Amino acid sequence: MHVAPLIQDLALILALASGVVLVFHKIKQPVVLGYIVAGLLVSGVRESENIQTLAELGVIFLMFSLGLEFSFRKLAKIGGQALFMGIFETTLMFAGGWTIGHFLFLSPVEKIFLGGMVAISSTTVIAKAFEEKGIKSRRFAQSVMGVLIVEDLIAILLLVALGTLTSSGAVSPTLIARTLGSMVLIVGGWFLVGYLALPRLIRMVGRTRSDEILVVTSTGLCLALGVIGTRYHFSPALGAFIMGSILAESSESHQIERLIRPMRDLFVAVFFVSVGMMIQPGAILSNLDKVFILVGWVLLGKLLAGSLAALAAGKNWTASIQIGASLTQIGEFSFILATLGLSAHALSPELQPVIVAVSIITTLVTPVAMEHATGLATKMEASLPKKLMSTIELYSQWRESLRVEAEPRRHLAPLFSRWLIAGLVVTIGSQVGAERLIPFLESTSLLPIHFVPQTAGTLTALVMLPFLWRFLRGITVSAPVSPGLRLLRSFSKLIALLISGILGFPFFEGTPVILLIALAVIVTVIRAFRPLGSIYEWFEKSFLESFTPAPEKNPPGAIHSLAPWENQLIRLQLHPDSEFSGMTLLEAELRNRHGINIVAIQRGSKHWVAPKPDQQLFPWDEILVLGSEDKIEAIRGRVEGPDRNLPSLLPLDQYELRSVHVPEGSFCSGKTLREIDLRGRLGALVTGIEREGKRILNPDSDFTLHSGDTLWVVGESQRLAEIPVALQKT
Predict the structure, then answer these.
(1) Domain 652-728: CATH architecture, name and number where available
(2) 344 φ/ψ angles, rounded to the nearest 5 degrees
(3) The domains spanning 567-640 and 652-728 adopt the same CATH topology
């Protein structure tokens, strides 16, 4: 019987990969490296286009899952520090990679690819390392995860820009700017349409309570936007990432992420196997000098760039070194960029195995770097001048004071976002009017040709009028404002007016006087026509509140990643066999004995903020604790792990239901179940009795036994075997 080549390829890949990754898991190495080694082993046996197709699906689902983990709400939470550190560190690494490419005599496009491949750290490797070491909730680890979110966003921009560069075959600042501008408009349009159109669909699917319908719908949306992205000359991975970002704001995001994970893991495994298949050991051996140069730059460059970025952002010395050491590797995005460059024939074939070798080496070094980061920071601190360390400490304190002073101004962020959204809608609407409406009106021949642009501009302005109203009003603050805020509002109005004028050029080209008159009329109408505010507010409510936020796993308003001074707010989950399970807070004495305060407790959908001393702790409770990092880490194992003093319990499969006959002359004849005490003597529970063809379920303890009764008892297998002997005793 004939088997399709696709099935043969998939069977070979998964069978070999499962064996190799099992070995890597046993030796406590990243499974990603196992997949790459499996690809290296299978490369000489099987090479097929089917594998590349499956690998592309792996990239799509990987980007979709990253999008599900990314959201604008999460981006807002990471704050300006992570944004600054991510941009600072990535820029330095990109510049260093580009410079190394120059000395390696690479082409301009190859130098850009190389800069991008060494700039982005591996979210997968770092998150896994943090989880295995149990440090993902520590302060520096949270900063690293914030930097990784920024890096992932930068990687998406690189993916789009490099995809356009490879298709055009040219490199110029104008082309890059045009590409990014086009991406902002098109992607912004996708987000706007997605946020307005998808919420009802997702809510309707969620109400079915069907995992099958939910996973089919979300996968279909992911692939659909990926296909649409190719129509605009974007990578399908970008469309998948955007759809994931849109669904990340939905009420079903956690459920979608859970359902999509097995399928993602399957195809991502195929992708990494395909990366290994492209490795040519001969190419690595002949380019060992490039491998060592790039390994040195990734390890030292990321350590220095990450540490400098953290210091510049106001982190202390030890935390800065820990952040830099955690970023010292490259991973999945480097593979994706290398695959893109090879498929577009923009990258030399010998460079791809070099990047894979660099990734393997740096991934192996990362856990070691994390483990010794604190010791390295201590040694460096001891060897550096005390005056320099004092300056760093004073700078860190100064930056922290600036952050505290900036808290009252945080309310400006949503106001700026709303103004920006209105401007984005106006920009997209103007582009659609210029590129679609003008040609349509010209094709109808209803108007003289020289009146078409002005007519299209007027119609576009009428449709966009509510958004123009919001955009041209600038950043509005209802409360009393300071002179600085008044200046900001005036500046935003001026910017909006200039942008509106630029967007009007395609409609009023050659007639600037008409354009100025049109803008004046629009401003007058906006100031006079109050209902425009109601129309825009309806849109804003539909857009910003269309997706019900995904339920948080923590008490609302209670959890923040960092607390004042040296204390932290950390979420712990109570193990069922923890010594604290079943205790009240008063009995646990976490505050008196361990210096830790329990701020909140969450159990399912219920939560208690500032719980009372008589509040009891139950298995799997999530507790929010406040304390220093050292004290929390000292108690973590006792909260999240089992009590080592508990006796070992038998597995449940050692218990069974068995029937036992009461023989003639048994000592228990005429006695009650309480009197024979099978539960106390043998740990057996009598669940039923048969007597003269009748069945008695769940008999009372006062039930009297007779000879000839059949008992149905539940208990441990070995102890049940003792019951017939026990019943015969006189």
Answers:
(1) 2-Layer Sandwich (3.30)
(2) -95, 5
(3) yes
Q: Is 657 helix (H, G, I), strand (E, B) or coil?
A: strand
Task: With CA atoms as reference, report the closest residue to 312 among 535, 83, 105, 609.
Answer: 83
Residues 350-387, buried b or exposed e (16+ Cβ, 10 A)?
A: ebbbbbbbbbbbbbebbbebbeebeebbeeeeeeeeee
- For the segment 549-594, what is each residue's pLDDT rounded down to a tens digit? 444 444 333 344 444 445 667 778 888 888 888 899 888 888 888 8
Q: What does the alpha-carbon distance between residue 40 and residue 352 come to, in Å, rounded to a whole number?
A: 13
146 in Cβ contact with 78 (< 8 Å): yes
- The model's pLDDT over 643-682, given as tens digits with 9 standing for 90+, comes to 555 555 556 667 788 888 888 878 888 888 888 888 888 8
CATH number of 31-381: 1.20.1530.20
Q: Which amino acid is at 53?
A: T
Fold of domain 567-640: Alpha-Beta Plaits (3.30.70)
Alpha-carbon span 34 to 16, nearest angstrom: 10
CA 637 remoteness from chain centre? 26
| Calpha distance 266→54 (Å, rounded) | 10
**Which SS3 state, helix, strand or coil, does residue 662 take?**
coil
pTM here is 0.63
Contacts (Cβ under 8 Å, ≥6 apart) of 681: 726
Secondary element (H or E) of residue 602: strand 597-603
